[in-house]
Task: structure prediction
Amino acid sequence: MALPTWDHPEPLAIGSAPVPEYGAGSLADLLPTLAAGMSVPGATAVIPELTAADRNCVFLIDGLGWEQLRAHPDEAPFMTSLLASSRGGTGRPITAGYPATTATSLASVGTGLPPGAHGLPGYTARNPATGELMNQLRWNPWTDPRAWQPHPTIFQLADAAGVHTAQVSSPTFQNTPLTKIALSGGTFHGRLSGEERMDLAAEQLAAGDRSLVYTYYAEVDGKGHRFGVDSDPWRGQLMYVDRLVQRLAEQLPPRTALYVTADHGMIDIPFDEQHRIDFDEDWELRAGVALLGGEGRARHVYAVPGAEADVLTCWREVLGEQFWVASRDEAIDAGWFGPRVDERVYLRLGDVIAAARDDVLIIASEREPKESLMVGNHGSMTPAEQLVPLLQVRS
Result:
């Protein structure tokens, strides 16, 4: 008797997803490595290519992926000149972590933990205590920050160890819950202009024999979302931030290592039905789904109780050629969120998790009208989204 044939091409194997380099070369590994080099108790060096410095500065440029930087040498001549310095002179990038999105990545940077431990596993995720979707970037609806993310930050550990510790960013971020749970420790200095931030970051580095300073710039990401990577506004922001990096590099005090990195890369998605699948208009994808979380390229899907297996089967059949579609336990076992997922985090993850491989989005035109109109997007494990620079300047 002939065996039945599969009516669709085989879905992408879960094991074929390029898992972030947790424990050796991810964003979560950066600050523990730097802090260990300054003899901070509880910090362990885990990026072997980096060498210790007395003063360390991390400049995080939101949205500037490795591939985008390499593709624009004319707009970023200074950073391009530093490409060979990336990851301790190996000329290689590091990985953001999954999902490659701002809230998750900033929590990984600040806590030194992968998403499965710090517990911010996406742009939006279900709060098991309330059953509601929580936006982890805007912290809406309100949730007790310390209950949501109870681990200390590396900045707090460094400050307690006598390291001069400071964050230099927009004043807007000073009192946000995300800053409190991911980037707090030492002193926060709010400055509006990029030039002011660079100058003050250099001053803060010089303020201690051992210093750990973090600074941030957002608008490369903002222009990418609105206009797309490689648009004129995006290129203009890249040119500007390249000058900022050079301005800071030229002011470094002695015995300093400056690291320029990012929270994720970005990819432009065309505006047509082939590339933008609308959950709100697709009855197959909606069947059995109680909540749709995450974002277009990194979805958490929360099923109606009892419908988990059916939702997984349906999403795999509909999307499995373009997305890695996994159950919660399959994604955990594959290490998508790190080597472990804490018990308090387990039910924040979707019953089904869909990560895009191709140039495609799952939008939700009614539930997420603003997000559905973004040109540039990110979140998944493709090189364009996942790989970020770790440029280095030493004085």
Q: What stands out?
A: The first helix runs from residue 30 to 37. Confidence is low (pLDDT under 50) at residues 1-6. The two ends are 73 Å apart (CA to CA).
